[in-house]
Write a structure and sequence with these properties.
Layout lengths: L3 E5 L2 E9 L12 E4 L4 E5 L12 H20 L2 H4 L6 H20 L4
Parallel strand pairs: 2-4
Antiparallel strand pairs: 1-2, 3-4
Helix pairs in contact: 1-3
Length: about 110
């Protein structure tokens, strides 16, 4: 998959989903990260052939990308450096997991 780009509050972020664990030093600790200093979201290329891997890797990757995009929005808002809650992984993951459901509700009510 080619790199994609997304506008986050006026800043263009590259979404790189081709990084390999072991080639990117930070990916040895996490499966994805948002580097606001270079405006890049890096997501490890997930191996669907590994024993014990998730059956729906696309769904997982989508959630991970949403998670990192939320970090990008918080960082570009100035909250990433200035508040503990904006760096809280549980809070960010909540929104990454629940946003599709929230969007569906908002759309059904025609309020978005």
């Amino acid at each position: 998959m080619k790199s994609r780009y997304v506008d986050v509050l006026g800043e263009e972020y590259k979404i790189n989903t081709e990084a390999l664990i072991g080639e990117d030093e930070y990916l040895n600790e996490v499966c994805a990260y948002c580097d606001s200093s270079i405006k890049e979201i890096v997501v490890a290329r997930f191996n669907t052939d590994t024993v014990g891997s998730l059956k729906n890797m696309k769904s997982h990757e989508d959630k991970v990308i949403r998670h990192e995009i939320i970090h990008a929005f918080l960082n570009e808002s100035g909250l990433g450096e200035n508040s503990d809650w904006a760096r809280n992984e549980e809070m960010v993951d909540f929104f990454a997991r629940q946003f599709p459901k929230m969007l569906k509700v908002f759309e059904s009510l025609e309020i978005i």
